Structure formats: structure tokens, C-alpha cells
């Protein structure tokens, strides 16, 4: 029933002496309910604005962190990386998403990464390792890496800084 039909029915009830009191009581209850809905809507809008602001801040912190940040799965497939991470790898972000992170590392570093991931799976809160990324000019970049479980799911977070 739409509101104009409901208001019409309420008006008809209010015009009859037998039902006028009940109609006025119902009208008052509807008005109170509408005020409650308006307050809830205002609170919801405020909550949405706060969440959007927090999300924006988190994205900014992740993207502009002074360390390379990567989110990988157990097969080291890259799901997320920040701008510093893409720069260290020498690719645009979109060019490496979905690729195996360990395929971008020197073989010994790929094993060190998998070993660190195994330690985290085994219960270590965090494991550290050194990663070497082959450079395009022949000089490898050496990074100190910290690997931890992703609190958002069955993945790993890898944070790297220059060694």
C-alpha cells in the first residue's frame, strides 16, 4: 500500500466519530516512526561517510607507503601490490597482477619466500627473508622482506624495503 492510499484511509477514519481517536493515535505512531526512520537514515549516511573516509585513507596509506607491499596466495600469485612494489618489480601494477611473485625473483629468493610462507603457515606470526629481484641492467635489487598472514583471508602479506 503506498503512502497516499494509507493517508486517504487514515483521513476517512479520522472523519468518523467512532474511529477518530484510533485514527489520531495511529497518525501519531506513524509520525513517531517517521522521525525514528529519519534519524536512522541520518545516522546511516554519517556511518557511510565515515567508512568511505576510512577506506580512502587506507587506500592512500597502502598505495603511498614507503615500503613495497604485496598480497600473494599460497602459490605466490600476486593479488595486490602498491606503487612502490610495482616500481621495484619494474612493471605497471596491472601488468603483474595474477603473475607468480616468485617468478620475478632470483631462484634462491623464490625458495626463501616459500620457506618464510611455510613458517607463517606453521604458526609463526611473521617470518623474514632476503629477496633479490633481478635488475634489467644486471644488478639485482636486494630487499629485506617480512611475510605474515593476511588477516582478511587465506593469503600472505609481504612487505619489502631496500637492503
The whole-number mean of residue pLDDT values reads 88
Reading off the top of the CATH hierarchy, the class of the largest domain is best stated as Alpha Beta
Number of strands: 5
Radius of gyration: 29 Å
The fraction of residues in strands falls at 15-25%
> Which stretches are poorly predicted, pLDDT < 50 over at least 5 residues?
none
Looking at this structure, what is the CATH superfamily of the largest domain? PAS domain
**Tally the helices: what do you get?**
5
Major β-sheet annotation: 5 strands, antiparallel
Strand arrangement, largest sheet? 2-1-5-4-3
User: How are helices and strands ordered from N to C?
Assistant: HHEEHHHEEE
Count of domains: 2
Q: Provide the CATH topology of the largest domain.
A: Beta-Lactamase
CATH architecture heading of the largest domain: 2-Layer Sandwich
Describe this structure in words.
- There is one protein chain.
- By secondary structure, the protein is an alpha+beta fold.
- The protein has 2 domains: 3-60, no CATH class; 65-162, Beta-Lactamase (2-Layer Sandwich), CATH 3.30.450.
- It contains 5 helices and 5 strands.
- It has helices spanning 3-15, 20-63, 83-89, 93-96, 107-121; strands at 68-72, 78-81, 126-133, 141-149, 156-162.
- Helix 1 (3-15) packs antiparallel against helix 2.
- The model has no long low-confidence stretch (mean pLDDT 88).
What's the structural blueprint in terms of helices and strands?
Blueprint: H1 3-15, H2 20-63, E1 68-72, E2 78-81, H3 83-89, H4 93-96, H5 107-121, E3 126-133, E4 141-149, E5 156-162
Antiparallel strand pairs: 1-2, 1-5, 3-4, 4-5
Helix pairs in contact: 1-2
Amino acid at each position: 500500500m503506498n503512502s497516499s492510499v494509507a493517508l486517504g484511509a487514515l483521513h476517512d477514519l479520522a472523519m468518523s466519530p467512532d474511529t477518530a481517536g484510533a485514527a489520531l493515535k495511529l497518525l501519531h505512531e506513524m509520525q513517531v516512526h517517521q522521525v525514528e526512520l529519519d534519524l536512522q537514515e541520518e545516522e546511516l549516511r554519517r556511518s557511510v561517510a565515515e567508512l568511505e573516509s576510512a577506506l580512502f585513507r587506507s587506500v592512500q596509506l597502502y598505495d603511498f607507503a614507503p615500503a613495497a607491499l604485496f598480497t600473494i596466495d599460497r602459490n605466490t600469485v600476486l593479488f595486490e601490490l602498491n606503487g612502490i612494489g610495482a616500481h621495484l618489480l619494474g612493471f605497471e601494477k596491472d601488468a603483474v597482477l595474477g603473475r607468480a611473485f616468485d617468478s620475478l625473483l632470483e631462484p634462491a629468493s623464490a625458495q626463501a619466500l616459500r620457506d618464510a610462507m611455510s613458517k607463517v603457515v606453521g604458526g609463526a606470526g611473521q617470518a623474514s627473508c632476503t629477496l633479490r629481484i633481478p635488475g634489467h641492467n644486471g644488478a639485482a635489487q636486494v630487499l629485506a622482506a617480512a611475510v605474515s598472514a593476511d588477516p582478511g583471508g587465506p593469503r600472505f602479506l609481504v612487505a619489502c624495503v631496500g637492503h
